[in-house]
Sequence to fold (259 residues):
Amino acid sequence: MSRQQDTDSARHGGIQVIARAARIMRALGNNPQGLSLAAIAQEVDLPRSTVQRIIHALAEELLVEQAGPAGGVRLGPALGQLINHAQTDIISLTRSHLQSLSEQLQESVSLCSLAGDKVYVIDRIVAERELRVVFPIGVNAPLYATGAGKILLAEMPEATMLNVLPEVLPEHTPGTLSRDELLVQVEEARRSRFAADCDELIEGVSSCAVALDTYLGLYVLSVIGPTSRIKPGIARLREALLQCKQEIERAIGHSPSRD
Fold:
């Protein structure tokens, strides 16, 4: 075998290991409570011995950790640190806008991004009122059952969107949409640049959202609150979100690829 062939073989092997590690970390991301090595192997369709070697290497970098005394593995603290470092600029640049929007509407607001097939909450301001919706930073919510998720779906190419969505959408509440109903709403979100959900993920909780097109990437600005306030106030919320979107994009700048 020539030196060039050796180099090509090593490069291919390295790419394969990275791809396998990514599959394992995605599987763990979908199971935050942790998985055993056998369960991971089944989930990613790899031999248990291969999974064990990769898990050991990831653990050395703190990208995964033991899930507890019962065994199993979950995503580690280093992953959260990397995400936090990557998002620091967008958080610092948008925080004052989120604060102002929350104070104006007296509702909780969030800054979100896409994480696989989920909505990832990067930052949030919780409304200062007696009846409010409180949610943690880092929470992952399904794309199909949230206003933020529908906006992210609307920003995807058609083929990508259809590939991300399951054939049958898991039902969280009686209000969870069917796949056909969702596709109609996503198409409308493409036209209006605005999306909402009504009791689709949690009964009594609704949200609405717009996309933020910035040079730092695509993000979503969302308002979340009790359905009793969100649903009748949707026109006012839409106007406030679009105004805040315009102010943030003017301050940060559009993504060159979207101009």
Notes: The CA atoms of residues 235 and 241 lie 10 Å apart. The chain has a mean pLDDT of 87.
